[in-house]
Structures are given as structure tokens and as C-alpha cells.
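User: Design a sequence. Structure:
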């Protein structure tokens, strides 16, 4: 309506501006305004009626929905009790079903647990059985251990008594000397120097008119020898081991070292190397234990130098064994050299015998060659002179048998061609004399 009215106004205003205003113009303008008002009112009325119809329609729909809701509410109120009973029945059924499922699951769980725990139960039973056995074994071993402890205690007591007896015995010079010689013999055996082969024990020699008896004389390759004397100054060493006072022990060990040095002086004065036996200018002073030499060196660190200046070599088992093994190696090398000389002599003898054998073989070959020549000559004579006449017997009917001719020997003996067996002149002579004879 407003749009139409504004469009009329715009039209009138344009017309008013375009032409001069007259009475007819006012009439037309008035009529146009009236028509515009009427049209606007009609449009507004139509729009109001359309909204009323829509409102009426919505009211009808709402009423229908209210009635449907009331019907549903009535239906719901009517089925409420039935639904409650049905719900209770379904709940009870579901509860029973769930209880059955839970019971079955529990049974399966128990069964699975029993199946899984069965090996564990068996293992526990075995473990319990084994623990019982171990306990019984422990009881038995405890009893045996007690017996063994008693035996060890008894053995220790016996060892203590034996040690005391040994210490008492070793305080005697004769016993100490015999023990030293036994240790010396063991060392020699360990080194591979067999008695009465590479060494001599307690051999008597003479030097400057005195009779000397070294404990051992080791024979070396080449006719030389080394003298060894065993010394066991154990009195002071045993006193040091028996005391618990450090000062007394030090005094006894110093006394022991002085005793070793005294043996060095005594052995140096004997001068075994000046004997008639070819010997190096030193003598070996053997101490039967490594501990003895170590203890002496702790008290006198220059004891080796002191002994060397007096032509004495201090040796314990760890020193003497390598020395003897070196001497044994020299003996083996001399045996190898002697064996090589024997092999060389045998080789020369074999070479001479091979020459003699080759001479005999050459003569035998010449004889065989002459025999082949004689045989072939006889075969030729038999075929050309004898068999020709003998075959005439068959022609005259005296016999029907054929006579076989012997075959000549074409092989000749093989000549000796090796230069070790014959000379070139002999080979040439053999070549001329061994020409194979041809049958005549």
C-alpha cells in the first residue's frame, strides 16, 4: 500500500513539475490519491485475513496435538501397571540369566585355575619331597662332616707330632745331610738326568792330596763335569720358625744366613775344580728348598756376589733344575752328533757295498747276454740244419706229426747306466758286448 502510494506521489510530482498546474490537474490528482488509498486499504485487509487464517490453522493443529497427547497419556496410564509387571518379570529373568552365566563363568574359572595350578601343585609336591631328601642328606652330611672334622683334628694332631718329630730329626746333622741328598736326587730326576748316565753321586776325587767327596758330579758332554754339594743349615732356620718373638726370629735368621756364608767359605776352600777331573772353575752349593735361599738373601742381599767371588754358585731347586736340563740338552745334542757320524759311516759302507753289487750284476748281465747269443745260434742251427732233414720223414710217410721250431730270444739284458754303479767306459763296453745276435 505504501509502495503504491509513493509511486503515485512520484508520478504526480513528476507530472506537476513537467506541466503547469490546472484545475483538471487537481481533479486528476485527487482521483489518483483516492484510488491509491483504496488500494492500500484493500491490501492491508487481505494481509490481515491471511494472518488470521494462519492463526486459526495453528490453533487447530495445537488442539489436535493436545487431543493426541491426552490420548497417549490415557494409553500410558492404562498400560503403566502392565508395563511395571512386565519390567519386573524381565528383570527377574535377566537376573536369573545373569546369575546362571556368573555361576558357569565361576565354574569355568575354577576349572581353569585348577588346570593351571595343577603343575604348580605337582612342582610344590616335588619340591617338598626334594626338601625332605635334602634335609635328610644334610643331616647325614652333618654327621659325616663331624666325623671328618674329628678325623682332621686327629690328623692335625698326628701331623703336629710328626712335624715335631721331623723337626727334632732335622736338627741332627746326619739326618739333614741325608735329606739334602734325597732332595738333590729328586731334583736330578725331575730334570731328566738319569742316575749312572749323565751324573754320578758321591764320587771320590783327589785334589792337592786330599780325598774329596762332592755330593754329586754331573758329567757334561765333551768329557767335562760339574760338582754339586748339598748343604742343609737348618738349626737356626728351625729355631726362627719355632719362636714368636720378632727380635729372636731376626737373630736366628741372621745366624742362618751366616751359616750359609760359612758353607760358601768351606766349599770354596775345597777347590773341586782343581781336581784331576776336568771341571769348570766353580762349584754348585745346593740348598734343598727355595725358602732357604730366599731367607738367606733377605738377610744378606749380596750373598750371590760373595759366593761368585769365591767361585761358588748358590742354587735352590728352581735354579738347579734349569742348569741340569741345559746339560741334558747338551748330552742329547752330542748323541745326535754321534748318531749322525754313525749314519755317515753306514752310508759310506752302503755305498761301497752297492759298488760291489753293481760289479756282480754287470758280470751276471754279461753272462746272460752270452747265453742269449749261444741260444740264438743253437736255434739258427736247429732250423737250418736239423729240422730241414727231419721234415723229410713226413714227406716219406714215416710220420705225420709236424715239428715246431723254437723261437729265438730277441730281448737283451738291461745294462747298468747309473753313474753311481758304473763308469762311462764300462757302459760303452757293455753296449758293444750286448748286441743281440740274429738267427742265421
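Assistant: Done.
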Amino acid at each position: 500500500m505504501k509502495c503504491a502510494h509513493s509511486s503515485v506521489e512520484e508520478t504526480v510530482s513528476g507530472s506537476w513539475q513537467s506541466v503547469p498546474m490546472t484545475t483538471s490537474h487537481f481533479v486528476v490528482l485527487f482521483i489518483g490519491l483516492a484510488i491509491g488509498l483504496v488500494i492500500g486499504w484493500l491490501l492491508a485487509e487481505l494481509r490481515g485475513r491471511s494472518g488470521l487464517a494462519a492463526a486459526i490453522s495453528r490453533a487447530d493443529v495445537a488442539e489436535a496435538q493436545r487431543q493426541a497427547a491426552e490420548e497417549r497419556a490415557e494409553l500410558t496410564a492404562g498400560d503403566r501397571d502392565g508395563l511395571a509387571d512386565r519390567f519386573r518379570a524381565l528383570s527377574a529373568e535377566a537376573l536369573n540369566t545373569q546369575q546362571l552365566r556368573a555361576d558357569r563363568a565361576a565354574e569355568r574359572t575354577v576349572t581353569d585355575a585348577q588346570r593351571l595350578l595343577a603343575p604348580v601343585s605337582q612342582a610344590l609336591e616335588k619340591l617338598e619331597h626334594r626338601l625332605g631328601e635334602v634335609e635328610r642328606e644334610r643331616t647325614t652330611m652333618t654327621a659325616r662332616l663331624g666325623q671328618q672334622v674329628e678325623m682332621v683334628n686327629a690328623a692335625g694332631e698326628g701331623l703336629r707330632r710328626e712335624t715335631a718329630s721331623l723337626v727334632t730329626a732335622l736338627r741332627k746333622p746326619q739326618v739333614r745331610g741325608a735329606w739334602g741328598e734325597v732332595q738333590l736326587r729328586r731334583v736330578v730326576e725331575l730334570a731328566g738326568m738319569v742316575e749312572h748316565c749323565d751324573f754320578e753321586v758321591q764320587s771320590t776325587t783327589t785334589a792337592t792330596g786330599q780325598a774329596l767327596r762332592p755330593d754329586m758330579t754331573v758329567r757334561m758332554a765333551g768329557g767335562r763335569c760339574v760338582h754339586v754339594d748339598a748343604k742343609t743349615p737348618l738349626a737356626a732356620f728351625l729355631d726362627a720358625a719355632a719362636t714368636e718373638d720378632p727380635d729372636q726370629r731376626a737373630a736366628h735368621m741372621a745366624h742362618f744366613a751366616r751359616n750359609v756364608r760359612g758353607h760358601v767359605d768351606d766349599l770354596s776352600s775345597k777347590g773341586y775344580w782343581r781336581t784331576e777331573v776336568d771341571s769348570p772353575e766353580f762349584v754348585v752349593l745346593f740348598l734343598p728348598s727355595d725358602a732357604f735361599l730366599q731367607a738367606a738373601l733377605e738377610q744378606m742381599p749380596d750373598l750371590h756376589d760373595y759366593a761368585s767371588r769365591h767361585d761358588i754358585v748358590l742354587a735352590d731347586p728352581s735354579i738347579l733344575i734349569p742348569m741340569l736340563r741345559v746339560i741334558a740338552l747338551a748330552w742329547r745334542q752330542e748323541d745326535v752328533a754321534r748318531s749322525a757320524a754313525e749314519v755317515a759311516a753306514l752310508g759310506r759302507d752302503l755305498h761301497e757295498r752297492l759298488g760291489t753289487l753293481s760289479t756282480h750284476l754287470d758280470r751276471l748281465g754279461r753272462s746272460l747276454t752270452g747265453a742269449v747269443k749261444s741260444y740264438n745260434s743253437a736255434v739258427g742251427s736247429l732250423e737250418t740244419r736239423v729240422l730241414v732233414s727231419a721234415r723229410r720223414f713226413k714227406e716219406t710217410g714215416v710220420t705225420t706229426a709236424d715239428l715246431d721250431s723254437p723261437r729265438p730270444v730277441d730281448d737283451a739284458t738291461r745294462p747298468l747306466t747309473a753313474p753311481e754303479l758304473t763308469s762311462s767306459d764300462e757302459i760303452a763296453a757293455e753296449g758293444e758286448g750286448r748286441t743281440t745276435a740274429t738267427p742265421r
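Residues 346 and 352 are 10 Å apart (CA to CA). Strands lie at 199-201, 205-207, 210-212, 216-219, 225-230, 283-286, 312-315.
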